[in-house]
Amino acid sequence: MTTARTLITGGRVLTMDPATGELPRADILVEDDRITAVRPDLDVAEVSERIDARGCLVLPGFVDTHRHMWQAALRGSGADQTLDQYFAVVLNTLGPRLTADELHLGNLLSALGALDAGVTTVQDISNVDKPTGEHTDALLDALTSSGLRAVFAYGHGTPDDARRVRKRLHRKDGLVTMALNAEAGSDESTRRGWALARELDVPTALHIRGGRPVSRLRRLGVLRPGTVFIHGTGMEPGEMGLIHDSGGALSVAPAIEMMMGHGLPPFAAASAAGLRPSLSVDVEVAAPSDMFTQMRAAFQIGRFATLHGHAGPGAPLLTARDVLEFAILGGAEALGMADRIGSLTPGKQADLLVLRTDRPGVAPAHDAIAAVVSSMDRADVDTVLVAGRTVKRGGVLNHPGLPRLLAQADDLRRRLAIR
Length: 419
What we know:
By secondary structure, the protein is an alpha/beta fold. The chain has helices spanning 83-94, 100-116, 133-146, 159-168, 187-200, 213-219, 239-245, 254-260, 267-272, 291-307, 320-334, 368-374, 402-418; strands at residues 5-14, 22-31, 34-39, 49-52, 56-60, 62-67, 119-126, 149-154, 176-181, 204-211, 228-235, 249-252, 278-279, 352-356, 381-386, 389-393, 396-397. It contains 13 helices and 17 strands. The termini are far apart.
């Protein structure tokens, strides 16, 4: 079998690997789906694709650990909503009325929007009703056809349907894998949900906010490693420590948490507990689907909280490097993928992006990390690879059905307005 080789040359490389750090100029060799070399002046005779990254930054793809991807079908419709209004309008009114085809459209739009913005991995918290297997398959088919690396966190369905999905997503090293959106309910329903996750041998993810939700899970005997706890705002002292000690992770959606009223994003509490948070978009009905927005929101909120005494005594002042690590390494760790993604390390999957630095709003990029966190946006994303496959090149997303998909999105907007 012929090996596909992609050579990325001459870029300023932010490896996110502590042993390697930042390389002022280096080449990256990708063979099939893996990185095989990262160093200056690689001598490779034959390549399938050569990408000139001179004057650009090269770094691992961003990782979004919490997004309700189906809601891209309703993108931007809830920018003014509070959290209670979002529950009433999006989850309880509009969501149940979407057809299987419309859910497919939403998930595919979200996946392609992620790739276009350099987000190469997303955990899809699929919290929409799944009355039939057709609805589930529509959501899942969109992910598998998009080229995105994704975790399909199944929720709002039946145990038998979840078992069917698990059989389909049986490979733990596949591009699309499974988790369970195991939201807490009554004691009995919570135990059942987490027992199903153990049966399926998949990670869990759930939203928590206020009080002692992690202590409750421990009391019920269901707390397990690999769980992604979402938001974590306003919790009682000690809860973050329980997340850390249980082998769990934290996903913060800073923009939405401030806009909808969840509470102050808990960066200081996470740091005090030894947790490195990950970042997430959450709901595209109200927030942009790129990681640049989330990094800037995290940077601004985290520093404001510390500088104005809202983060507690001794809270560290967030740095641009901290926030970039949240958006890449923190996400890879939260999803249990740090051995595969999150750094440009030989042997890992080739999920990476090339960012241009030659726009007037970015140049001159004195500090590469600061440029990514404070100056860039999706317009600077030139090239994106996922598992060695080029999904965006020269600023253009490689998806053959994109014009038709955008026309379908506009048709959906008109239909929903009539409804």
